[in-house]
Design a protein that fits this description.
Blueprint lengths: L3 E4 L5 E5 L10 E3 L9 H7 L4 E6 L4 E5 L5 H18 L22 H21 L2 E9 L2 E8 L7 H16 L5 E5 L1
Parallel strand pairs: 7-8
Antiparallel strand pairs: 1-2, 2-5, 3-4, 4-5, 6-7
Length: 186
């Protein structure tokens, strides 16, 4: 098995491409080891000292390290954990915890605007941020403000504010006049 790695705009995060399907659809975000109980793959990766977060996409695994860890020291162990997982035949996610990664539900008077926002996110934004090892999902819309949840490499990325303000906000405001601002949620 050959696992490729790619850098991301977030220096604390690397993208691992195992050459096999990770999650067929959706995503799974584990910002802490305690939340990884539903994923045998994420648990294996969290067993590596220095791992702070794991994000699973369709065909990639994004790993965020702690500030104290150095990539040249922990990368071989992460590669080994991913390889061990695929050789074990274990499922990526347990049956008890299906993958998520969808947008938050929204109904009410702004439902048509929210559907337009979700459509633009799905067609223009999410494919681009997945290339960088992350995901951005709709969280809410209130009085012209769009709230987005950033995951994987996007969470904590130094350029995420610029991406939100100059990229996503401008895109949404261009196509949807009711949008006045975009903000991240924790």
């Amino acid at each position: 098995m050959f696992i490729q790695t790619e850098t991301t705009p977030n220096p604390a995060t690397l993208k691992f491409l195992p050459g096999e399907t990770v999650l067929g659809s959706g995503t799974a975000d584990f910002p802490a080891a305690e939340q990884a109980a539903g994923s045998p793959l994420a648990r294996r990766i969290f067993a590596v000292p220095g791992v702070a977060g794991v994000f699973l996409g369709s065909d990639f695994v994004t790993v965020t390290k702690t500030d104290a860890a150095a990539w040249d020291q922990i990368k071989p162990s992460i590669l080994g954990a991913i390889m061990d997982h695929y050789q074990s035949g274990d499922a990526v996610m347990s049956q008890a915890q299906p993958a998520g990664g969808g947008h938050a539900d929204h109904d009410g008077p702004d439902a048509e605007i929210v559907n337009q926002i979700k459509e633009l996110l799905d067609t223009r934004v999410r494919p681009a941020v997945a290339q960088d090892g992350g995901d951005i999902t709709f969280h809410g819309f209130d009085r012209g403000v769009v709230y987005l949840h950033m995951q994987g490499a996007c969470a904590g990325c130094p350029s995420s504010t610029l991406t939100l303000k100059m990229g996503i906000e401008n895109l949404l405001r261009h196509y949807i006049p009711e949008v006045v601002e975009v903000r991240p949620v924790a």
